[in-house]
Specification:
elongated, 3 helices, 4-stranded antiparallel β-sheet, alpha+beta
């Protein structure tokens, strides 16, 4: 059968900048662990953006406190002058200004969260153990958000595409379109291969069967 990784992805940055460091684990054929730092993008601009965002949040909080204090004063003034017989508007009681200040604070806090995210994204990691199929960038290169830096694949789980005849499928007592689940345990599959002068063996599970017959080979492909 044809062996292929269950997960294979392009490594793509979510922010732009100049590459200042590349791990030895991010070279063609190299292995890495989940969470390892693979590529570091210059974070100077993102550090400054974070400081500015923190400043805007502090200013927005101060403005909200000022508007709340003004609201208390105006409400007390209207309470002391009820003899006027007028119903105060939200603007007269400073409620509109308080709502605007709260919205400004939420917006500033959202910008702060975005600035922190952007700073974190200058360090590029992947969430699985794997190997590097190809690296396409170098230190000092400027990269844009969305630009592929290389391609990696997981090594914890692989899929093997198995060609079966309809007779073999009948012997396995599996229907077309079969998918293993909690109610139906996946059949065991024994894998073996000889590389050089060594034999290797693994135990796997047949997890699904194609719902269609291949038009050229008349075979049915199962995945283990």
């Amino acid at each position: 059968g044809e062996v292929r990784p269950k997960t294979e992805i392009d490594v793509v940055p979510q922010v732009s900048g100049r590459i200042v460091a590349i791990s030895e684990s991010f070279n063609d054929g190299a292995a890495f662990r989940a969470g390892d730092l693979l590529v570091k993008i210059d974070d100077t601009d993102y550090q400054l953006a974070l400081v500015r965002a923190e400043s805007r949040v502090a200013a927005a909080r101060t403005e909200l406190e000022r508007q709340l204090a003004t609201q208390d004063i105006k409400e007390q003034e209207w309470a002391d002058n009820r003899s006027r017989g007028e119903k105060p508007t939200d603007f007269a009681l400073n409620k509109t200004q308080v709502a605007e200040a709260r919205a400004a604070l939420r917006s500033a806090e959202a910008d702060l969260r975005q600035a922190r995210l952007d700073l974190e994204r200058t360090e590029i990691r992947v969430p699985f153990d794997g190997h590097v199929r190809q690296r396409s960038v170098g230190i000092g290169q400027f990269v844009a958000a969305g630009m592929p830096l290389g391609r990696v694949f997981s090594s914890d789980t692989v899929e093997v595409r198995l060609p079966l005849t309809d007779t073999q499928l009948a012997e396995l007592n599996l229907p077309l379109g079969y998918a293993a689940g909690d109610a139906e345990p996946a059949p065991a599959v024994h894998f073996s291969i000889r590389l050089g002068n060594r034999d290797y063996e693994w135990l796997g599970r047949l997890v699904r069967v194609s719902a269609a017959v291949d038009e050229d080979t008349r075979l049915i492909y199962a995945t283990a």
